[in-house]
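To: structure subgroup
Subject: Chain for Friday's discussion

All,

I'm putting the inputs and outputs inline so they're searchable in the archive.
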Amino acid sequence: MTPTRAVRPAKGGRRRSRRRADMPLLGGVRPPIALLCVLVLALAGLTAQVLGPAGEQAVPQAVLSSQQHFAEDGAIALRASIDERVTDLNRTAAALNAGPPVKPERVLSDLGKTYQKWTGTTVLDLESGKVLAARGETIPLGWLDKDVLTGDTALKPRMVRLETGDVRLMTMAVLDFDDRPQQLLLASNSLSVPAINLGQFRSMAVVATGGEILATAGFEQSESLNSDQERKELGFLQKQMSGLSARAARETEQDPVSAREPGSHGYPGVSGTLVGASYNGRVATAGYASLSSSDPEEKKSVGAGLGLTVVAMLPVVQQQAAGPDRELYGLLAAGALVVLGLLAAAVLWATVQRPLLRLFLESRRLARGDLTRPVDVPRWGEAARIGSALERLRAQLGGPTDDPGGRQRVKGRFGVRGPLALTAVLLLLWCLPVGLLLNRTDDSVSIPASMVSDQRDRTDLVADRVRRALNEAQADLVSTSRLIDPDDADAGKALLEETLREHTRYQALYLLDGDGEVVARAGKEPRAGFADGDDLPLVRVAGKGGKKPVVQAAAPLPDHKGMTLVGEVRVEFLNSLLKRPGLGEVRVVDAKTETIAASDGFLAFEELPRDALTDLVRAGSVHVGAGPVENGLLIREGRGTTVAAAAPFSGGGVAADIGWTVVSWQNAKDFQITPYEREDRSVLAGLLGLALIVVCLGWVYLVVARPMRALAASAEKLADGDLKSVHYPRYQDEVGAVVRSLELLRQQLQARKQTQARRLAEPEAGVRGR
């Protein structure tokens, strides 16, 4: 019989295919180590970018955002002013139509006494076209035609240009008296810049669709300047305002929902910032905001439908660029991260990945039956325990050994957790100093002077809004009081209920007689009296000791001495007027610095939280010249800086002399100033480093450390003789491959034990047979 020679497999044939089959799939310790290296390099690049001077603006973002908020405040004030004028005219006409006929002269006289807000008023006979009465500025009538008085857009407010070139907003309402032809009540008012404090160097413009400037404020007259240099700078600013207004008009033509810059912090209209050219080291910065209703989906606001835009411009000193040392800081921090990150990856490779791969190869060799050489046992940890158990299993399978009893069991206290802790410490050596020490700020940070002045001016604007709202509330009561008949209680109650429905600012309306008794009421129960004999202002606050202050406005009935119409203004309405982005916490306090309203939660009549704020309010209430003035202040306490401002009520109306003050304050760290931005970036870099540690090392712990501890225990049990427990691999990785090899070794030990048992049983059977 011819012997046949065994055919050797081609090089790299079946053996290579087996290796590929035994190799673990994507998993194990290599992916998290690779991810650690990638994330370290990415974080290092980000650190070099954000901690260096790259991307720093010539103007601090805080200054630009402040101009945007200032423009939004101006737009809100202008829209509210336009809407109030239209609403007041329509309400007056409705009240007149509900009563007996009134002469045109009387109509205009009462209208002027109640509301001082129109540049001209006219009553026109619609049948003959004759002017029946006129007051103030002459209103041109050439624009009145059929389209204005009929159709879907009938009696809608219109912008009309006068012969002088000025633009006026014309508001119309129909007076329909019994037994008289219909009359048209016309009122005109200018679309001027809101009457707010612009502060020093700031200018503001009202811009129409297409970029046409309708009105400006804040520019000095060229005749009052003393030098050609000042006139040249004035011409530069006017040219910048023209160009920035045209750009702002183009931006605000976008829909608020789809605009690139739809405002910030909930502003419903389109708002944003613009940067112009520079002159003498100062850059022209501007904020713009379109007039928008409180809800963009609702088109009820007349001012919002006029297509107007408010532009606020302020020249600011150009910020100095950061020096090369700042860039060096970023590069050094990034370099330190790369070094520590690679060192951490090297620790994981040397102490976790390499021993695990060695165990994978050794276990696979034993499972294939190669028992000729001892197992290469790692030095420590779970890998050493597993290697020692594999060596004992090799000896039990009959492999040659100098120690038939097997090597001693290795005990490890820390195991893989030790390298993981060392890796975490190495990365924390970078994260903690960068996040907690690098670029730290204190109270020595320089705050731009424009931020303090903007805080003061915007606080004064809020004070003006609250004062005007209270004046408007009292004026509405005056208008309503002329229609009340105290002798008809039912009619008076119906009128109060209708007025309460129209005015959401009130929570209760009631009519008091001379003894303070309620004659008619609508809304909630009166919480405080307002007797006519009291020597009190027409706007006051009561209810001390309760949960909420009671803000009251009153209007005596003109022909009924002792009768007073009182309206309680909702505190929530006042709170809503105080909520403005970029202004911090805002409160209204009385002459005793007790809180009446606030943008955030507050306790009724509580004191201000800081003595410095109380002193600021009292200093602003001191009469200087014509009256109290607003004031701004930097409060430096400890490591923090606070920007605060106080604006006492001033101007006209019944609410001007009640002694209230609007005070605001905010932490300077909320400003987007370069030192604070660098500190935030450093903290962010440190937090990203911590996240890197948690993700990568947590991954290693979950997929390698815990399974290796379980594998070490299973291998030692198997080496101690536990052949019944089946080993199931849970993961397709290095640990899972070792578990599969361990199961094969268990099966081989079982087969060897069964074979030995049969061999021992065969001689006994032969002896019995003889």
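Points worth raising on Friday:
The chain has 15 helices and 20 strands.
Residues 1-25, 260-265 have pLDDT under 50 and may be disordered.

D.
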